[in-house]
Amino acid sequence: MFNEFDQKKLEELIDQDEMCSVEYPLVEDFYTIQGEGAHSGRPAYFIRTAGCDVNCWWCDVKESWDEDQHPPKTVEEIVEGAKESGAEFAVITGGEPLLHDLDPLTFQLKQAGIQVHIETSGSSPISGYLDWITLSPKRFKEPLDDIFPYVDELKVVVLTNKDLEWAEKNAEKCPDSTQLLLQPEWEKEGAVDLIIDYVKENPQWGISLQTHKFMEVR
Fold first, then answer.
1. How many CB atoms lie within 10 A of CB 89?
2. Tens-digit pLDDT profile for residues 116-139
3. For the chain, which end, N or C, has fewer CB atoms within 10 Å of the first or last residue's CB respectively?
C-alpha cells in the first residue's frame, strides 16, 4: 500500500474480475498536461472523482463536490481510457479522492504499467498503491496524521499570512525529503508577491503556479 507494490503477491490475493467491476463516481477523466506542483509540464491522465468533504470556497471544480450528480464508472473503463491515451502517468484528484477506497483502481493502473499520483487534502484515511502523494492541506478540515509519513510533496494554497503559518505547521510533520511548495490563489491580489517574499527568506520552500491556466488546457 502507498509506495509499496508487490505485484505477484497481490495478484494471488485479489480477484481480478471483482476488482475491475468496482465503480467510482467520476466527474471526468482525460489526457492532458499536469499544470502545477512538482510534476508541472508532465503529460498525465487525470482521473477526477466526485465527492468532497472540504469544500474550499476558491475551488475550481465545485461541480465535483456532490457525488450523487456524477454517474459511476468501473475500474475497467477508467483504466482502459488511461491505456488508450498512451499516458505513463495518472493523477487521481477530485473532489477529495480519498473519500473512496483507491486500492482497486490504483492496483489496476499499476498493472497497466502506469505510475500513480494522488492529489489530496488528507482529510480521509489513505488508500491505494501510489508512486507520488501530493498533500494539499486545508485549514477548513485538517489532514489526518496517518498521511504525513508518505507525503512526497506538500503544496499549500496561499491567500494570507495565516496560510503561510498553516504551511509551516504541516511541513513540520512531513519527512525531510518532502518537496515543499507554496501556490498562490489564482484570483487573490497580492498572493504572488507574498509568496515571493516568503520563499526568498525561506528557501526550503518553492513556488507552484497553475501553468495550465496560462496554457489554457484542462
1. 18
2. 999 999 999 999 999 999 999 998
3. C
63-67 long-range contacts, Cβ below 8 Å, gap at least 24?
A: 63/27, 64/27, 64/94, 64/95, 65/95, 67/25, 67/95, 67/99
CA 132 to chain centre: 9
Backbone angles phi, psi at 20, to 5 degrees: -65, -20
Element (H, E) at 162: helix 161-171
Q: What is the pLDDT of residues 3-50, one digit of tens each?
A: 454 555 455 556 677 888 899 999 999 999 998 889 999 999 999 999
Beta-strand relationship, 72-74 and 23-33: antiparallel
Closest CA to 159 of 133, 117, 180, 188: 188
Q: Are 150 and 3 in contact (CB under 8 A)?
A: yes
Q: Give the helix/strand (H/E) hosting 171.
A: helix 161-171
- Name the strands in the sheet holding 89-93, side by side, starting at the edge strand that comes first in the sequence: 72-74, 23-33, 43-49, 89-93, 115-120, 132-135, 153-158, 179-184, 205-207
Q: According to DSSP H, which parts of 14-160 are helical?
A: 16-20, 75-85, 103-111
